Structure formats: structure tokens, C-alpha cells
Amino acid sequence: MGWIEATARVIDAINLRIGRAVAWLALAMVLVQFALVLMRYVFGIGSVMAQEALIYAHALLFLLAAGYTLLSDGHVRVDVFYRPARARTKALIDLVGVLVLLLPFCWLLWDVALPYVEASWRIREGSRETAGLPFVYLLKTAIPAFVVLLALQGLSLALRAVAVLAGRAPGHFAAPEP
What counts of helices (H) and strands (E) characterise the chain? Predict the structure, then answer.
């Protein structure tokens, strides 16, 4: 196994572990939402903190699992053309997609989000609600994490494509099973 395959496998392993860990937030979201409905309609009480915790969990699930979604081939693509294509054509599409679309998007988002997150950290931004969660700045930190995880997984996809195009792999070499 060459350095290309080894690097791709390390990146895949990182996103696989993070994706599996973050997936538990889906269960937490269901339980918190159930508790909120029960509290509101059975007991007549509400909780701003619990409502914000639900929003935080949803945001973290979306942001931190994006690399995992790309790893497991769950992102949107025009499969009408991609699915029947040969391995080399798929590799070329993947490589061009990563270099022309994904990585520039990640760079732009990083460039725009970093000052936003830094400003939030500077003032230790909290909820607008008095009874809300006091650490919005920690949630906003997930935005640069999203960018890094997605860009790394894009790099892994590009490395796999290069290996196929260079004839070092007969097709996409296997990514870990999600």
C-alpha cells in the first residue's frame, strides 16, 4: 500500500469514527424532543435550555457528520450519468468535483466563518434567551470543524481518484464500511 492509499485510509478512519460517534446525537434528539413534547402538552411546562439543546444537537449532527456522509457516498450527485460510468470516468468526475467544487467551497466557507467564530469566542457569546444555553461560541466552533472534516474527506476522495487514474487501483479502492 502506497502513501496515497495510506493517507486516504487515515482520513477515512477519522471521519468514520467521528460519524459513528455523532450519529448518537440522532437518538438524543428524539429523546429530547419527546421530553419537550411531554413537558409542554402533559405538564404544561417548557424549557428554553432543552429546546436549544435540541437545536445544538441538530447542528452538530449536520456539521460533524458531513465528512462521514461524503465517505459513505451519501451526498447529492447526478447518478444518472455517474452510476453507469466506468471506474476511470468516475474517478475523473470525483477528482474534478473535489478540485473545482468542494475544496473551493471549503476554502470560501473557512474564510468567511473564521472571523465569525473568532468574534463569538471573543465575547463568549451566549444565548439571546435568559434561560438559554450560555455557550453559543462552542457551537459556532463546529463550523470550522465541518470545513476541515469535509475538506479532508474530499482530499481522501481525490487521492482515491488519482490512484485509479494512475492505474494503481483497478477501481475505487475500498473505503471502510459505514
Answer: 9, 0
